[in-house]
Amino acid sequence: MRGVAVMGILLANIVAFGLPGAAYFSPLAWGGAGVPEKTAWLLNFVFVEGRMRGLFSALFGASMLLVIERADARGDNGAALHLRRMFWLFVIGCLHLYLFWWGDILAHYALTGVVALFFHQARARTLLLLALAALLVSVVMNAASAAALFAAAARATPADVAVWNGFGAAFGVPPRSDMLNEIAAMRGSFAEAAAWRWQRATNPLTLLPIIAPDTLGAMLLGMAGLRSGFVTGGWSRAAYARVALACVPVSLAGYAAIGWHTMASGFDQRWVYTGSLVLSLPLRMIGYTGYAALLVLLSRSSGAWSARLAATGRMAFSNYLGTTLLMDLLFAGWGLGLFGAIGRAWLYALVPPVWALMLIWSPAWLARYRYGPLEWVWRSLVRGRTVALRL
To answer: What residue ranges do the domains of the chain occupy?
Structure first.
């Protein structure tokens, strides 16, 4: 599951790697707004948007619980180990955020993972209820923001204009000069791009109260999935089939309806925000739960593909950060400098070769080494010593 999630995250993020930030939510911002680009946006929205990050977040929660429980079982302090892991993850995430890519999620995971620690002893049913409560909080908070955006649409006061323009920077079409400045910075030197991210990227502490309920809900659901046996294949084949059949079609149909309405509105930033961060939130949780059930079913037919996906998942940390380096080689000024130069539809052609690379190098590396290279660095930092790497 984690292998599919880290591969799917590239599919979700490829636009954010290659185009100005506003293009992530709206094809009108940059990268072309013709039929191919809008079709690419719609397909990504219906099948990928939110679900891959949700699945990855849920598996992060399951993994953190597994680490804590294993540490406690061998007589160590699992909570202390978890906090050390989150500290170093936060450090690595901040380096990733400011030096390489504004879309880093690791620092946010580290902070939210500290909050999730408070619930690590809860039963599966309690964790499920807490996950649903966190989802409700996220929906209410984002709905309040959407209401403020709709209220500011008339732009009758300076405050309304500020609200409208603030949302427009991420969900609408920002001034062309702003996007040209971003393109120039990304195509500039390493120092110029880092300086732009330092000034413009969202501080992880500022981001925490905005999206933490959504992320925490996914982590808690993953913890419930581990405790109930859902993510470890402990349920019957019929049970997984029921979950997949109940969840996947509902999520896809709901996202298709939201996506179609967003397009029909002409990508009005009010509906871009409402569709992406309010209406789709319940469908997101339903969707990645269904995807997880489907992946368990598929993984039960063992074979070479399952082994390669499993290796990719075992090296998810290295693959996630390694993808950023590859994308920087393509788009950054210290690489080929193609940022903002490739249309949205063509960007997706870059994804399959990177997937192939993940599926080839991950099992080849793990045939000789215990951990992925960055997994080894993280583990060594947490333990305060160099751990054995070679098999």
So the answer is: 2-383
